[in-house]
TrEMBL record:
The gene is pnp4a. This is Purine nucleoside phosphorylase. A purine D-ribonucleoside binds at E187, N229. NCBIfam families: PNPH (TIGR01700), PNPH-PUNA-XAPA (TIGR01697), PRK08202.1 (NF006054). It is an enzyme of class 2 (transferase). Pathway: Purine metabolism; purine nucleoside salvage. It catalyses: guanosine + phosphate = alpha-D-ribose 1-phosphate + guanine; 2'-deoxyinosine + phosphate = 2-deoxy-alpha-D-ribose 1-phosphate + hypoxanthine; inosine + phosphate = alpha-D-ribose 1-phosphate + hypoxanthine; 2'-deoxyguanosine + phosphate = 2-deoxy-alpha-D-ribose 1-phosphate + guanine. Phosphate binds at S19, H50, R70, F71, H72, A102, S206. It comes from Myripristis murdjan (pinecone soldierfish). Belongs to the PNP/MTAP phosphorylase family.
């Protein structure tokens, strides 16, 4: 109510700007900006690179509200507080939420500077029982047991890929799975390897709880990760490559031996090499 009384903007789109991406909010025209400290009941941002402002304005003809800085679990906020702005957006009349973040790549094809369109997520804190929807369900927002099988809107993902092609940057953009961890420490080598094997493409410390709350209250969600680093050490990438190559060689030798035997000859590749 306080925000609606302070601005004439009625946003359809909300954007949560991840680490280092806050400058997007500066592009809004006819801005009304509010420091989190001035908004009654709003949590406070403590992370460097997160300005701590809610900025309303026009972006390419759409009325938007941007969070210049988000809240993370590792700052000591409850998950309820980290996701509180998503419910504020819903109450402001927002229909589409765009989430952005900085993330580490676990996928061979994703390098620093690339953009990953989030096609799905693994919410590790959520799997462990740290869920922003814990506690009594508020039916005004959504159901007790919301489905999470299609969190990231397929139409918006397709549109984003098309736009990347039109802009000539398609080689920097690909879809992938984002995993949220609690942070603030980065992953151990074993943790990074585990997530890589589980099919995670990029890892970060935010986003998934916000998306859970957004999907619960019926917002359409689009998410992107800016890849900032590559936690998997070179050695483990090399070892994976070496193992894959060894498997190929074993298959090739087996195939060659099968054809030699088929031709009636009594030798094999291993006897040839040993002799
Ligand atoms: O708000 P995001 O998810 O962009 O912030 C990322 C994750 C950590 O907060 C921090 C670590 O680099 O950046
Ligand atoms: O490598 C990472 N791990 C977790 N969170 C991150 N945020 C940016 N990079 C990373």
């Amino acid at each position: 109510d306080w925000l609606l009384s302070q601005t004439k903007h009625r946003p359809q789109v909300a954007i949560i700007c991840g680490s280092g991406l806050g400058m997007l909010a500066d592009a809004l025209k006819c801005q009304d900006a509010f420091h989190y400290t001035d908004i009654p009941g709003f949590p406070q941002s403590t992370v460097q690179g997160h300005a701590g402002r809610l900025v309303f304005g026009e972006l390419k003809g759409k009325t938007c509200v941007c969070m210049q800085g988000r809240f993370h679990m590792y700052e000591g906020h409850s998950l309820c507080k980290t996701t509180f702005p998503v419910r504020v957006f819903k109450l402001l009349g927002v229909e589409t939420l765009i989430v952005t973040n900085a993330a580490g790549s676990l996928a061979d094809g994703l390098k620093p500077g690339d953009i990953m369109i989030i096609k799905d997520h693994v919410n590790f804190p959520g799997l462990g029982g740290f869920n922003p929807l814990n506690g009594p369900n508020d039916d005004k927002f959504g159901p007790r047991f919301p489905a999470m099988s299609a969190c990231y809107n397929p139409g918006l993902r397709c549109l984003a890929m098309d736009i990347a092609k039109q802009q000539g940057v398609a080689e920097l953009v690909q879809e992938g799975v984002y995993a949220a961890v609690g942070g603030p420490n980065f992953e151990t080598i074993a943790e990074a390897k585990l997530m890589h094997r589980l099919g995670v493409d990029a890892v970060g410390m935010s986003t998934a709880p916000e998306v859970v709350v957004a999907v619960h209250c019926g917002l359409r969600v689009f998410g992107i990760s800016l890849i900032t680093n590559k936690p998997r050490p070179f050695l483990s990438v090399f070892l994976d490559f070496y193992r894959a190559l060894s498997r190929e060689v074993v298959t090739m030798v087996t195939d060659i031996n099968a054809s030699i035997q088929g031709s009636g000859c009594s030798c094999s590749v291993s006897s040839l090499t040993s002799s």
